[in-house]
Amino acid sequence: MVGGMLLHCKSLRRFEHSGGWIKALLEEAENERMHLMTFLELSQPKWYERALVFAVQGLFFNAYFVAYVLSPKLAHRIVGYLEEEAVNSYTEFLVDLEKGVFENRPAPAIAIDYWRLPPDSTLIDVVTVIRADEAHHRDLNHFASDIQCQGYELKEYPAPIGYH
Ligand SMILES: [Fe+2]
Ligand SMILES: [Fe+2]
What we know:
Its EC number is 1.10.3.11. With 164 residues, the protein is mostly helical. The chain has helices at 2-14, 21-42, 47-70, 72-99, 109-114, 123-149.
């Protein structure tokens, strides 16, 4: 959302195209929000978990905004590594679901709708597609950083399309 917003402002300011990066980054933000909406249907967060998100959002959004203004290549690199960690965490979660540590419940309706899953899908199917999303986010953000580390602007390399 921060990157998409800043590139949106830059596009307006400079009267130039973004190479599809605004749409790609805003879609990534929307996709992440759908991960939250999906997990919200599976468990209701406690008050202290909500408070944590509130505090982290207040700090992280602003810190990330400053980081993106100062160094977009660093900002994308950080997200690339965070997404890699997300892939690892979801892999561990899948192992636990398969072992029965956590109950493999039916997929929430919102997830079946959003990812167009078969009606009899389970939590394992949902976590598998979410992990694939995170792998796309990882690749996209490392790619965005690589482009700029090599001295090019994002708009010189069109954003990969057709992903969440
Ligand atoms: Fe996510
Ligand atoms: Fe992600």
